[in-house]
Input
Amino acid sequence: MQDSRAEHRSQASVNMALPGHFYLISLVTLLAAVLTWFIWSAPVLPRSIWLGGGWVFGVVFYFGALRYPDLYWRTLERWYHELGSPRYFYRLSGLWLPWLVAIAVVLCLTGLVWGLAFAPPHHEQGNSYRIIYLHVPASSAALMGYMAMGVAGLVALVWRLKMAEIMIKAIAPFGAVMAAVSLISGAIWGRPTWGTYWIWDARLTSMLILLFLYLGVIALQNAIRDPRQAGRAASLLSVVGVINVVIVRYSVDWWQSLHQGSSMSMFGTAGSAIHPSMLAPLLLSMFGIYFLYAVTVLVRARTEILWRERKSQWVREEVS
Amino acid sequence: MSDPNDRHRNPPLLQVDALGCERDERSLFVGLSFTASAGDIWQVAGPNGAGKTTLLRILAGLFGFYEGRLHWQLPATLRESMLYLGHRPGLREELTPLENLTWLSALHGQKQDAALMAALSAVGLGGFETLPVAHLSAGQKRRVALARLWLPGKPVWILDEPFTAIDAEGVALVEAQLRRHAAAGGLVIYTSHHQLAADTRQIMLGAHMPGSGAPA
Amino acid sequence: MRGFNATLQREVLLAMRSPAEVINPLFFFVVVVSLFPLAVSPTPDLLREMAPGVIWVAALLAVMLSLDGLFRTDEETGVLDQLLVAPVELYFTVLAKIVAHWLLVGLPLVLVAPVLGYMLQLPVSVLGTLMWGLLLGTPSLMVIGAIGASLTVGLRRGSMLLALLVLPLYIPVLVFGAGSLGRALEALPVNPVLAVLGAVLALALSLGPFAIALGLRISTGD
Output
């Protein structure tokens, strides 16, 4: 018999990974499918950007894993250990943070000022469409945040990585705020467009449910006293939530078609391409929000690390 | 630590190495090490809140937030080999003692009915087999849970406060059973304020000292 | 598989000993549905339009409220610890508990639903769809709710939290369940929708007990 801790672990996983690792594999596959689906149907980012990202990933993988496998896997392993260790993460994120803040400020300011003041008015909606420069980045960030929580949750459950639990705790509040911003800005846009602040539009409804899911994770985290236990519980709920989010979106779309509600898109009639002069500031503000997201997540994660490790020597040295 | 005058030739079943646990902002124990062998009876002692229950839950694989290493050396998996009795009896009040034990022994793949009846009468509950547990006294409930000590097939016993609520005669009965189990090559780890005579080993918690293997 | 039959038998036995656990959700279902005509209007047309939503929401709430006790009593008595240390696959014991709970709580809801549907002026022709929908939907609701119950089992006042966690997760089942009935009322084909409910059920039954087992372990501190 090996180490009993490992034995418990393996028993726990064997216990649930019933025929071999069937359940684990199906879970991962499912998650991958979810991610692909979301990326494919991500409402705003042009597919070319995702394809471009895919190419970059492919090239890195080709030269890395196939040409220089040794270096590649060693680097990955080092990152895994360094980012998985709260102490290294704290140091590393401290180095990144100033740069991320600078990039976020520049991108957000340029994107918003360009979009709100200089981009041309929409041919149908006039100036009211300009709220997309807030609404779309917020919606996208809320959705991505939940996906990221699901991935972090899976990592936390499978590899018991403390950092993954900390990430979930760091992501949840900002994600919930982004979902709320998306809802409020959607409502403000709805007033001139639909004549009412609220309509049970498929996208708004999905976003509302996403907000509920965020609040559930936050509520569960706050209800459990032991932070380690709270982290694991939130991980499980995030994974279940991510699987659910896909079915929710599918079901809400179907529900909308059933009741033939309004399906007006923010870009006018669905399918019509957005003009490049409007797209550029949108992309800027979107990446700006992503960087802002990264900044808040890092700051919150760093606070959480300090709190969890407050008794350790390195935190004492860091703080004093 | 293994004791200096190595009395037993039996192989170690459990090695605990630098075990530490923290709960609710409080460190329960640090650097706890000991080696338990077949034939041992270990008493985990210490004041209330010292982490006795937590230690047993860690050993039983129910509590996973700890530092250090646990090393079980058993012929089968820990859950196949272990009988764990928590500080709550683990019985549903609506069911009779027999029904409760039937379910538990079915989970453990143990023999049914005749053995269960014999176990229940061994703890002095003959005639109570078909009365709902809710109608029994606290001591009788504890005896129902303890009846599982009379079922064979589990080399490792982890018992949380087995002597709570039972009378002097019951204590003697259980004590004798623990000794029989140890003599037959089993391992008993239990928490209690009640100390068995002579050859039990003690783990003192609460004084922040590493567990000593010295016979108490 | 060891432990599945024993646990199933035990759960049924427990329910027989305290029948309130079984009868109360059913009673709740009937009472809640009866509130709507009183609160809104007894107009038959209006009732018929509301009926799918009312019946499904009431069934969903009845299932959710019944789940709060699914693991709680076991946790309080220490039985849950015994379940976790037993040398059986927790997947199957959890599945047994859910199957038993559905047979005792879910199935009666399915059986009584047509009567309530009739009272809400649903035409007899759609009552079959109502029952099929609930037959496929309530087990999913049980599994999803049990995930929430496993995560809140050790918490005091966990029932409100359970609702917060579980209700958003219930939305797809609610949409497809009530939607199938809505389509039946418009004489549209319902089999595709029921198939989706069946797919959700397959997903819930295959992955759900895995999540519930993990949730129970997390709640007890592993």
